Every structure is written in C-alpha cells, then in structure tokens.
C-alpha cells in the first residue's frame, strides 16, 4: 500500500473533534488502548495530519513528530513503531521462517505459512487488524487485515489469509527515520 | 556548568526545553536497560506480559533502520553487523554467537593474515565510490523542478535537455502527448509542464533517450 509516498500534502493541525473521533475509533477497535491512551496522545501534544493527494481516503497522523497511525476508510491502523512500543495492542499472528523474506518485500501472508510448523494462528475475525510476527523474532514486522476468519483458514489452508498493509522498510516506515 | 545555572534555566522556559532535557536523560538509561530486558525475556517470558503497560524500548539499526533482529534481511547486512559490533556489544553477542566464535578463533590463530585482509578491505570500497562519482559530471545533469502553484496544482520544469543534443520542441511535443498535459517553452529555453510529473519523468526519460542515465536526473522540489 505504501510503495511510494511522493504526493504527501502539507501537515494540517487536527481539530479537537478530530482527535476525539480518532480516540473513539481506537477504543472501538483495540480494547487494550484504554490503558495507554495518555501515553500515545499526551494532553498538550501537537497533533498533525497528512493527506495523500491521489490514493484512497488515507490520512497519516503525527504526534510531536512521531508517526502514530494512519486511517484507511473506517479502520485506524497503528504505525509499526507504536506496535513495537506496546506489543499487546494487536492480536499476534506468527509465520514460519521461510515467509519472513517475502513479507519484508511486501507480499501478503498466505495460509500455509500460518498453519505449518513454526507458524501460529490465533483466533481472529475477518476484517480485524493483526500484527505479523516472524518465527524466532521478538518484534512485529508487519501489520495486516484478516481476509478470512481464523476457523475457516484452519479448515481450508489455501490462498491469501492476511492482506499486508504496512511492513518494515516500506515508504511509511522510511518516512519516520528522515 | 553548575547546577544553579540549570535551575534558573528551567524556571524561565519550562515547557519545551524541559522535555528535551528529560529525553536526553532518558536515552542513556534506556540503552542500559535493554540488555537486562533481553535477559529477563530469555528466562521468564510469561511474566513479561503483565508489564507491557509501559512502553517497550526497541533498538533500531542506524544503517538499515530495521529492528536489530531483522538486520540479516536488509540490503547490506555486513555494514549492519559492524555498526552493531561497535555500538552494542552485548546484543551482538546475543544475535550472532557463531560469528563471535569464528572471529575469536581467527584472532587467536592468524593475527598477521587478518591485518592484511583489513588493509585489502580498506583499499577496496573507496575505489568503487570513486568510479560512481566520476561518471556523472555537472554538464550532463538533467534537473526536474516541481513548483507549487496552488494547494493542489503544480508546475514541473525540465532543464538541461539541450546538453544531450535533443531538439527541445520535439521533446516538448512528445512529453505533452505522452502524459496528456499542457506544456510550453520558457524564456530561458526550459520546458514547463502542467501538473506534478516528477516521478513519471524520472522513469520515462532514460527509456526514451538512452543517452540520459538515471544518475544524471536530479529532482528539486520547492
């Protein structure tokens, strides 16, 4: 999704209602967020948002020069750095060692990688945002959206299981190191 | 630098400076904590789950920007290793135990040959860099400038095409037909295009005119 980020607009301040809505949608999606709300959004923080000129309805949110999350349609998806800080925010799915290379270059997660030895499939529903972990690695390496229920994947392990949205080394990741 | 000076400083400008100072103080502490955390996780992975309310500190590689574990998947894993070795020795020992053993054996057995290798390695990389830099001279450069006209309207100007022996009028017509945009020729002899075409032009120019290579194109945004 973030292969190129050349058409980034100038930052605009988020309004108070905008921040409220953001927090609300965070709370709806991730139950763990309540406990870390004040750390992610400090009270006197400078909250800015970027819009992409060409592609879909994507908005990237920045708090005090740290990229926090981005919105895609109705979903709020955290930045990988935030997931590294608070690993319990997302449901964890683990893939086997052979799949790590392909995911870091931007491919989707296929079902056999989750079912085989070294993979781990935790219960999650279709459309939920999950963190993707690698076998033998401690930190998350990608964030994706489930394309099927976990029970269905167990029954019929074929095809795409998780749609990759954001991963280590993509344009959004590189933005946060400039 | 005395303590009293610092106190006065804080009282005058409390908000931003204070935060910066706190962050500076935090960073060295975090670096010290990291090896301890790793050891804890190795011993007691289950107890760690309860402490996650506080932010966890992850060390990122300065060469490839990945977390340190993923360095082996980057484009230049050797450079990452050397960086890790100099800055975080404990982590290096944790992540690459085999390499450490090998190096120790080497050092013990063959001290002289290693010095020669190092000299060779030091000699090689500068040569490569020189070759790349020599190829592109300024007289061959093609510049693409993007200027913002409105909030969402742009003008791109192309300069330096005539240095490659191209007819500017023909090139202007080709580009405007290819991308479907309005175009004009400047007083200085540059091509002006409607819209932000920097990314497309960067790909298309070397394909259409083989004398222009990718290294010769520079994008400047205003």
From TrEMBL, chain A:
One cellular component term (GO) for this entry is:
cytoplasm
Q: Where in the cell is it found?
A: Cytoplasm
Q: Name one GO biological process term.
A: formation of translation preinitiation complex
Q: Which domain of life is it from?
A: Eukaryota
Answer whether the UniProt record assigns the keyword DNA damage to this protein: no
Q: Does the keyword Cytoplasm apply?
A: yes
Q: Where is the PUA domain?
A: 91-169
Q: Which GO terms describe its molecular function?
A: RNA binding
Q: Which UniProt keywords apply?
A: Cytoplasm
Name of the featured protein:
PUA domain-containing protein
The species this protein was found in:
Paramecium tetraurelia
TrEMBL record, chain B:
**Which domain of life, per UniProt?**
Eukaryota
Q: InterPro entries from the xrefs?
A: DENR/SUI1_TIF, DENR_C, DENR_N, SUI1, SUI1_dom_sf
Q: What one GO molecular function would you report for this record?
A: translation initiation factor activity
Q: Which GO terms describe its biological process?
A: formation of translation preinitiation complex; translation reinitiation
Instruction: Check the record and name the CDD domains matching this protein.
Output: DENR_C (cd11607)
- Domain SUI1, which positions? 142-209
Task: Point to the regions of Low complexity compositional bias.
Answer: 24-45, 107-125
Renumbered to this chain, region (Disordered) spans 1-45, 104-135
Q: Give the family this protein belongs to, as stated in its UniProt record.
A: Belongs to the DENR family.
List the protein's name: Chromosome undetermined scaffold_1, whole genome shotgun sequence
Source organism per entry reads Paramecium tetraurelia
């Amino acid at each position: 999704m973030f292969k190129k980020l050349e058409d980034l607009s100038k930052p605009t301040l988020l309004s108070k209602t905008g921040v409220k809505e953001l927090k609300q949608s965070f709370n709806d999606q991730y139950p763990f967020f309540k406990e870390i709300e004040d750390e992610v959004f400090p009270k006197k923080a400078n909250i800015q948002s970027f819009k992409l000129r060409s592609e879909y309805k994507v908005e990237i949110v920045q708090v005090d020069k740290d990229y926090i999350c981005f919105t895609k349609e109705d979903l709020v998806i955290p930045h990988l750095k935030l997931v590294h800080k608070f690993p319990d925010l997302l449901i964890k799915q683990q893939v086997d060692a052979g799949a790590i290379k392909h995911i870091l270059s931007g491919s989707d997660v296929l079902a056999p990688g989750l079912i085989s030895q070294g993979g781990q499939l935790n219960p999650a529903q279709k459309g939920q945002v999950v963190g993707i972990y690698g076998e033998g690695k401690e930190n998350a390496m990608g964030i994706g959206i489930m394309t099927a229920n976990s029970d269905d994947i167990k029954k019929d392990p074929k095809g795409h299981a998780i749609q990759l949205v954001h991963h280590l080394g993509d344009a959004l990741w590189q933005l946060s190191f400039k | 630098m005395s303590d009293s000076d610092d106190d006065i400083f804080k009282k005058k400008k409390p908000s931003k400076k204070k935060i910066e100072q706190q962050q500076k103080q935090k960073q060295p502490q975090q670096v010290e904590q990291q090896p301890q955390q790793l050891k804890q996780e190795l011993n007691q992975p289950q107890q760690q789950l309860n402490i996650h309310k506080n932010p966890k500190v992850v060390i990122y590689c300065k060469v490839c920007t990945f977390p340190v574990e993923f360095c082996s998947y980057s484009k230049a894993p050797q450079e990452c290793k050397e960086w890790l070795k100099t800055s975080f020795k404990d982590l290096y020992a944790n992540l690459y135990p085999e390499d450490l053993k090998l190096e120790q054996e080497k050092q013990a057995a063959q001290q002289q040959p290693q010095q020669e290798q190092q000299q060779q390695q030091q000699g090689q990389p500068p040569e490569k860099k020189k070759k790349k830099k020599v190829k592109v001279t300024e007289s061959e450069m093609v510049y693409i400038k993007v200027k913002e006209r409105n909030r969402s309207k742009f003008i791109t100007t192309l300069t330096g095409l005539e240095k490659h022996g191209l007819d500017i009028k023909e090139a202007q017509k080709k580009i405007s037909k290819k991308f479907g945009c309005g175009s004009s020729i400047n007083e200085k002899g540059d091509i002006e295009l409607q819209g932000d075409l920097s990314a497309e032009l960067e790909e298309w120019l070397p394909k259409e005119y083989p004398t222009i290579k990718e290294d010769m194109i520079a994008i400047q945004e205003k």
